[in-house]
Design a protein that fits this description.
It holds the Pfam family CAP_GLY. The chain is of the alpha+beta class and 239 residues long. The chain is 21% helix and 27% strand. It contains five helices and twelve strands. The strands form three sheets. It has a five-stranded mixed β-sheet with strand order 2-1-5-3-4. It has a five-stranded antiparallel β-sheet with strand order 11-8-7-6-12, with helices on one face. A two-stranded antiparallel sheet has the order 9-10. Strand 7 and strand 8 form a beta hairpin.
Length: 239
């Protein structure tokens, strides 16, 4: 039987669905076998899977990319995050189209008029966001998170080549075109011109231009999702 020291606990996330799981693996498990187990957990195929290791705050540390090695041969520790990326884009986005799913939406006024709701219970018993102490803790954590984003942003410069790793999305390469505050969300953001049309805009949001790029090549991400380095453009002819 494996002892506690022989096991490593990870949070498992992937770009197929937004849910996550916590699993423990033996240190001596071969990487090819680890990928087979991750396939059962995430639905990403082991043959087209990339495994990225992040720390508890979500900062990418390194990739697990050598099937001949064991998990313990990498500098992994419990509580780290295994971000599983399905590189087959057709499979990665197979759950994205929810246009045919009927949705029922209740207005805030309609919800407030109802009796014995979860919101009323939480308000009466000061639970969650209705608990002043919990709200203070939430505010503190948000400030710590933003400080982490500011620190990550300080290491990013305009025209840096980079890789972008966003949860539930494939890793993308591009060039940093903008860094700073934006009008549509609080905090510091990084504007990326992707090498491929995998973005959401042309460097503009709601009519405000932040940088120039072709349509569908631009995106805004948090600094913690950006890793700068020597990332040449992918040669599509080699794929």
């Amino acid at each position: 039987m494996a002892t506690g020291d022989d096991m490593i606990e990870f949070t498992i996330k992937n770009n197929m669905v937004s849910s996550e799981a916590i699993r423990r693996f033996k240190r001596n498990i071969p990487i090819h076998e680890l990928k087979n187990q991750l396939e059962l957990i995430t639905g990403a195929q082991s043959q087209s899977m990339k495994v990225h290791v992040h720390d508890e705050r979500g900062t990418k540390l390194f990739d697990i990319d050598d099937d001949s090695r064991t998990l313990g041969s990498y500098n992994v520790q419990s509580k780290m995050i295994l971000q599983v990326e399905e590189t087959n884009l057709k499979r990665a986005h197979m759950f994205d189209d929810t246009g045919d799913v009927p949705k029922y939406e209740l207005t805030n006024e309609e919800y407030e008029s109802r009796k014995n709701t979860a919101r009323q219970f939480m308000q009466e018993h000061k639970i969650g966001k209705y608990n002043p102490t919990a709200q203070e803790e939430h505010t503190r954590k948000e400030k710590e998170k933003e400080a982490h984003e500011q620190e990550a942003a300080s290491k990013i410069n305009i025209n840096d080549r980079c890789e972008v790793s966003v949860i539930s999305q494939p890793t993308k390469r591009g060039t940093v075109m903008f860094k700073g505050e934006v009008h549509f969300k609080p905090g510091v953001w990084v504007g990326i011109r992707y090498d491929e049309p995998l973005g959401k805009n042309n460097g503009s949001v709601e009519g405000k231009k932040y940088f120039e790029c072709p349509d569908k090549y631009g995106a805004f991400v948090r600094p913690s999702a950006v890793t700068v380095g020597d990332f040449p453009e992918v040669d599509l002819e080699e794929l």
